[in-house]
Amino acid sequence: MTLLSIVMILVLITDPIGSISSFEDALAHIKGPQRKAIIVREMLFALGVMVFFNFIGEVILDIFKLSETTVRLTSGIILFLGALRILFPPADEEGLASDEGTPFIVPLAIPTIASPALLATIMLFAHIIPGNAIMLSAIGISWLISVTILLSSGLLKRVIGKSGLMACERLMGMVLILLAIQRFMDGIDSFIRNL
Questions:
Q1: Is 117 buried (19+), middle (13-18) or exposed (0-12) by CB count in 10 A?
Q2: Which letter does DSSP use for residue 104 in this model?
Q3: Which of 19, 130, 138, 160 is deepest in the core (most CB within 10 A)?
Q4: Which segments in the chain show pLDDT lower than 70?
Q5: Which pLDDT value is given to residue 111?
């Protein structure tokens, strides 16, 4: 896998465009520079969790001696489930918003950004891809893209509107489903070749 493809997958799973509404709901009572500072703080927490899972995930998967085939099939399933969440968001997702006080780590850093699907994908990719340089670069670049989108959410809403944001989110979900199926088919191919 190339750095670009890993970055694209991580951005698609992070779903920063789909996360705009969660951030807006949780930070509705906060305006101006403080709002941007909270977004950056929450994203830094999410980045720390992502990097942690990159290192601990590789160790866990090595301890359990999981095969390449298992990792590829599991990766495809996780990507597919993440895509379904994007295309068909749960009805209670609005419950992530914080009604009182300032959100701290939960629900914005975890699980909105550092979601279970994202963390599991990072663990799997850390196992598949040798060395840490590519994964750490991919995590950093995808994080920067997500931060930029979330900090520009007001501008994005004005330019493409709420329906435009929803259309972009659905498009991201469709691309992620294609990637998930490809990853799953790679796993089946690997399984057949190893019989």
A1: buried
A2: B
A3: 138
A4: 91-101
A5: 84
| Three-state secondary structure readout of 167-185 | HHHHHHHHHHHHHHHHHHH
Q: Which pLDDT value is given to residue 195?
A: 81
Distance CA 167, CA 163 (A): 6
Domain ranges of the chain: 3-193
Structure tokens at 190: 């690997």
CB of 63 within 8 A of CB of 151? no
Give the pLDDT confidence score for residue 100 in this predicted structure: 57
Distance CA 20, CA 154 (A): 9
Q: Name residue, tokens 């001696």.
A: 65
**DSSP summary character for residue 106:** B
**How big is the CA angle at 147 (ends 142 and 151), to the nearest 5 degrees?**
150
